[in-house]
Write a structure and sequence with these properties.
Helices cover 19% and strands 32% of the residues. By secondary structure, it is of the alpha+beta class. It has a 5-stranded mixed β-sheet with strand order 2-1-5-3-4. The radius of gyration is 13 Å and the shape is globular.
């Protein structure tokens, strides 16, 4: 089966793509997937990760059919 990988905001722009897809393999984590698709690019310090739209850690073990999203932290508020 497969895992869908999505990149948002400035990550999408700096990588030049909005996502990747890969065949499922036992034991994959967001950290391992970042390294696989972005070799030579360090993982941004404040990157957030979501698995199936729920916040997750970089060491979460993914399941078949999961959607993984990487996005930068955002701040905001009213002035």
């Amino acid at each position: 089966m497969s895992i869908k990988v999505c990149y948002f905001a400035s990550l999408k722009e700096s990588l030049g793509r909005d996502g990747d897809g890969l065949d499922y393999a036992v034991g994959l984590t967001p950290r391992a997937i970042w390294d696989r698709f972005n070799a030579g690019r360090p993982l941004p310090v404040n990157v957030l990760v979501a698995v199936n739209m729920d916040y997750a850690s970089l060491d979460t073990v993914l399941e078949d059919g999961d959607e993984l999203a990487f996005f930068p932290q955002v701040t905001g508020g009213l002035l």
